[in-house]
């Protein structure tokens, strides 16, 4: 197996802290993200390497195995289990016959990975499930407002997935059988995709609800009227009641964010009005406000 220096990929050394790894990954992932380099195949390859390096080095257990076993770190669990089985003198286990106490230790590993024959004369190979893979999918909030297809590159393979409307930032989904390949015909591992969602809108998302602040002219707040506001699903007209106060909140049912895996269901949109105080008034306008003040007093 070819050795890949994950520390070198992230521009770090083996003394790097967890925080160093996280910062290096975020910086490089942004720089080489396929969406920012659509015509650069090398950037796409580099992005995959960066993801793989982060997956290993950010996980304390995987990092420990990588530091100890190098290129063979993915088989560390099988090596260690095989050693435990051998030290207990077990024979005929799920790994096949490992020889007697006088057997050569290298033959023991050969039998584990398919290079030796048991006493029955049949070659036995242990089957192992492939490693699970981790990946991040960076999307904008508007991208996850509707269900859509997305192509994700993982370990040099393009995987087409369906991104359901309503997924949340940090949410992880499992794609069965798209992880690392199995050993000796064993099943493939699974792929875990974590969504990293950037809010590219003027709305604030809280679960399935959206918050939106709308400036309101003083005259409309006092006298009432009708205004048009934006939603993620287009523009809507909204009736403003007379004498609406600054900070008044209005609920628009079903105009929020789609609910994950619940078709045609959505949260609510909460609109908060901020009343605008007029500026640059003419003398006539000021006089009218003075008259209004006298009447009010």
Please give a structural write-up:
- The protein has 297 residues and is an alpha+beta fold.
- It folds into 3 domains: 6-112, Helix Hairpins, CATH 1.10.287; 133-198, Urease metallochaperone UreE, N-terminal domain (HSP40/DNAj peptide-binding domain, Sandwich), CATH 2.60.260; 204-296, Urease metallochaperone UreE, N-terminal domain (HSP40/DNAj peptide-binding domain).
- The chain contains 8 helices and 11 strands.
- A 4-stranded mixed β-sheet has the order 6-7-11-10.
- Strand 6 (204-206) and strand 7 form a beta hairpin.
- The protein is elongated, with a radius of gyration of 31 Å.
- The relative contact order is 0.09.
- The model is unreliable at 89-123 (pLDDT under 50).
Outline of this structure?
The protein is an alpha+beta fold. The protein folds into three domains: 107 residues, DnaJ domain (Helix Hairpins, Orthogonal Bundle); 66 residues, HSP40/DNAj peptide-binding domain, CATH 2.60.260.20; 93 residues, Urease metallochaperone UreE, N-terminal domain (HSP40/DNAj peptide-binding domain), CATH 2.60.260. The protein contains eight helices and eleven strands.
Strand order of the largest sheet: 6-7-11-10
Report the major sheet: 4 strands, mixed
Number of distinct beta strands: 11
What is the total number of structural domains? 3
The helicity comes to 25-40%
Q: CATH topology of the largest domain, anyone?
A: Helix Hairpins
What would you report as the Rg, rounded to the nearest angstrom?
Answer: 31 Å
- The average pLDDT is 82
Structural class: alpha+beta
Which CATH class of the largest domain applies here? Mainly Alpha
Number of helices: 8
Global geometry: elongated
Topology as a string of helices (H) and strands (E): HHHHHHEEEEEEEHEEEEH
Percent strand: 15-25%
């Amino acid at each position: 197996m070819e050795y890949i220096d994950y520390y070198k990929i992230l521009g770090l050394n083996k003394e790097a802290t967890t925080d160093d790894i996280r910062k290096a990954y975020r910086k490089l992932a942004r720089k080489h993200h396929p969406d920012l380099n659509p015509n650069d195949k090398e950037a796409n390859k580099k992005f995959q390497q960066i993801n793989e390096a982060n997956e290993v080095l950010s996980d304390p257990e995987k990092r420990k195995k990588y530091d100890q076993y190098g290129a063979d770190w993915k088989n560390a669990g099988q090596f260690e289990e095989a050693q435990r089985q051998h030290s207990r003198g077990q024979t005929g286990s799920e790994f096949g016959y490992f020889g007697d106490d006088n057997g050569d230790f290298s033959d023991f590993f050969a039998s584990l990975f398919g290079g030796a024959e048991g006493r029955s004369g049949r070659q036995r190979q242990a089957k192992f499930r492939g490693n699970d893979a981790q990946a991040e999918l960076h999307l904008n909030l508007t991208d996850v407002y509707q269900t859509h297809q997305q192509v994700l590159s993982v370990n040099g393979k393009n995987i087409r997935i369906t991104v359901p409307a309503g997924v949340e930032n940090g949410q992880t989904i499992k794609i069965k059988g798209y992880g690392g390949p199995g050993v000796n015909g064993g099943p493939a591992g699974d792929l875990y995709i974590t969504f990293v969602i950037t809010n590219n809108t003027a709305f604030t998302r809280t679960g399935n609800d959206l918050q939106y602040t709308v400036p309101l002219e003083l005259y409309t707040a006092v006298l009432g009227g009708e205004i048009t506001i934006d939603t993620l699903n287009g523009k809507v007209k909204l009736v403003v009641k007379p004498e609406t106060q600054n900070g008044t909140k209005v609920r628009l049912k079903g105009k929020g964010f789609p609910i994950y895996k619940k078709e045609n269901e959505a949260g609510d949109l909460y609109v908060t009005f901020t009343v605008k105080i007029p500026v640059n008034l003419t003398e006539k306008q000021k006089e009218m406000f003075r008259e209004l003040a006298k009447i009010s007093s």
